[in-house]
Amino acid sequence: MKYLIVGLGNIGPEYADTRHNIGFMVLDELAKQEGAKFYNMRLAYYTEVTHKSRTLHLIKPTTYMNLSGKALNHWMKELKIPVENVLVIVDDIALPLGTLRLKPKGSAAGHNGLKHIEATLGNNEYARLRFGVGDNYPKGRQVDYVLSGFDKDELPELPALIDRSIEMVKSFCTIGTELTMTKFNK
């Protein structure tokens, strides 16, 4: 069984460790734990890991957030992975920091990366792991907020949340969306 795990983010050092790059951060840690290395390939940084005889194809799109669908679509076709085996890891300002939610499908909820994926695929029938980053910003400052780093008081929470996200990714690939939601969504 093959799975495509897509961590959303923006390339470039100025975006590293920002809220918007939590998808990249989760996949970086997963690759590190599995001893895998990312390679710059077509439209994405790519690597693969195995978990319980399943192959997890990890991509971090190099298209920037607003064109994420381009990379996802290319790799889905290239690897012949059906949409039900795709999981997108995305930051979510509607959820407080510390909240992780797996959903089988859903709206883009204003997220430009998800909007582009939806437009490219022509549907929203892909699973997503929503990583809550909070919404502690003044009205109209959403972009600055998601492109900023985590606050000093939030940083200690990140490693455990990233590890829990990795557990959820592995669970999605082994027991599926519904059972993973039951086990992890709170």
Can you walk me through this structure?
The chain is of the alpha/beta class and 186 residues long. The protein contains six helices and seven strands. Strands 2-3-4-1-5-7-6 form a seven-stranded mixed β-sheet, with helices on both faces. Helix 1 (22-34) packs across helix 5 (158-175). The model has no long low-confidence stretch (mean pLDDT 96). It comes from Mucilaginibacter psychrotolerans. The active site is at residue 20.
Descriptive terms for the model:
186 residues; alpha/beta; Rossmann fold; seven-stranded mixed sheet; 7 strands; peptidyl-tRNA hydrolase activity
Quick synopsis:
The protein has 186 residues and is an alpha/beta fold. It has helices at 22-34, 68-79, 112-121, 142-146, 158-175, 177-184; strands at residues 2-7, 39-41, 44-51, 54-61, 86-92, 100-103, 127-132.
What's the topology here?
Elements: E1 2-7, H1 22-34, E2 39-41, E3 44-51, E4 54-61, H2 68-79, E5 86-92, E6 100-103, H3 112-121, E7 127-132, H4 142-146, H5 158-175, H6 177-184
Parallel strand pairs: 1-4, 1-5, 5-7
Antiparallel strand pairs: 2-3, 3-4, 6-7
